[in-house]
Amino acid sequence: SSDEKQDSSWKKCDFETDLCKALHESNLQPGWIRKNGRSGMGPPYSDHNGGDSAYFLSLSSETQSSSATLRTNVFLPTTEHVCQITFHYWISKMSATLIAGFQKHSEDTITNIWQDSGELQDQWKVNTITINSTEKYEV
């Protein structure tokens, strides 16, 4: 984390006040909710640091759909053309799969760049994905 603190382009997203400017309300498909451990809506009951007041996004247990998507704002390429996104996640359903995809604006297809097909884990996990792009893209 020391290199991120020195980089002025590094942005932290923690969902405390909004959807982090990386996600627009219109990008939040039905089923996704912003909650914290005090919401009383089932696990997880805290964030990845153990705090029950910190907010995170969760897929509602009332969702009838078999899938739901979140899309970031458009990322612009940097001079190094590399972006790292670190995220914490929790899988609380049996046979669930969480996928991160990448879509260049010049293409119609989404390329899967990471996935975890976990069983009921009841614990926070962390992952970092690295994206190398010379053009605009979304994750």
Describe the protein in words.
With 139 residues, this protein is mainly beta. The chain has two domains: 1-68, no CATH class; 74-138, no CATH class. The protein contains one helix and seven strands. It has a three-stranded antiparallel beta sheet with strand order 5-4-7, with no helix packed on it. A two-stranded antiparallel ribbon has the order 1-2. The chain is globular and about 45 Å long. The two termini are 22 Å apart.
Order of helices and strands: HEEEEEEE
Average pLDDT for all residues: 75
Flag low-confidence runs.
1-6
The 3D shape can be described as globular
Q: Number of DSSP helices? A: 1
Report the sheet-strand fraction: 25-35%
Number of domains: 2
Using only CA atoms, what is the Rg? Answer: 16 Å
Distance between the termini: 22 Å
- By secondary-structure content and strand pairing, the structural class works out as mainly beta
Q: Helix proportion of residues, in percent?
A: under 10%
Spatial sequence of strands, sheet with the most strands: 5-4-7
How many DSSP-defined strands? 7
Largest sheet descriptor: 3 strands, antiparallel
InterPro entries: ConA-like_dom_sf (IPR013320), MAM_dom (IPR000998), MAM_domain-containing (IPR051560)
Domain MAM: 11-139
Protein name: MALR1 protein
Pfam families: MAM
